[in-house]
Design goal:
The protein has about 160 residues and is an alpha+beta fold. It has 6 helices and 6 strands, in the order ααβααββββαβα.
Length: about 160
């Protein structure tokens, strides 16, 4: 689990209001559950947790709330490779993921790695990139070495 600087619920509520949004009971519950969970969670997992406390909540409210929170910069949305969108609170310490396509290894990388990309896009394309939470897919060192070793062995046999 990736750790981040936890936001207090009061700070999250203030960020929602600062985004021009009302603080409804459903939004308060979803913010509370996201804060308590502390890491990536799918809308379906969040819905199951929320229904335990608010049984009349429906899944479309959860999706709409998560999309609103994403759009105003409180929540990041990322597909970690399994086709399911995951959500996490955006704290001061943003992070990203390197995901191996072969073995599934996941490594977190610091946001500072993308500072140069942001600067380049701003200067060359006049584009302000919002890089909140990326998942980059490729091969980890072990899988890359195995793959290259297998290719070299195949070339020697031909």
């Amino acid at each position: 689990m990736v750790t981040h600087q936890p936001s207090t619920l009061a700070q999250l509520h203030q960020r929602l209001r600062a985004g021009g949004q009302r603080l409804t009971p459903q939004r308060m519950l979803i913010l509370e559950l996201l804060d308590a969970h502390g890491d990536h969670i799918s809308a379906e997992e969040l819905f199951a947790l929320a229904q335990q406390r608010y049984p009349y909540l429906n899944i479309s409210t959860v999706y709409r709330t998560l999309e609103l929170l994403r759009d105003i910069g409180i929540v990041a949305e990322t597909d970690l490779g399994n086709g399911v969108r995951h959500f996490a609170l955006l704290g001061d310490q943003r992070h990203h993921h390197l995901i191996c396509l072969q073995c599934g290894y996941v490594e977190s990388v610091d946001d500072a790695l993308f500072d140069e990309l942001r600067r380049t896009l701003r200067e060359t394309k006049q584009f302000e990139a919002r890089i909140d939470h990326l998942a980059l897919f490729g091969l980890c060192a072990d899988c890359r070495d195995q793959s290259q070793g297998g290719q070299a062995a195949g070339m020697n046999q031909g």
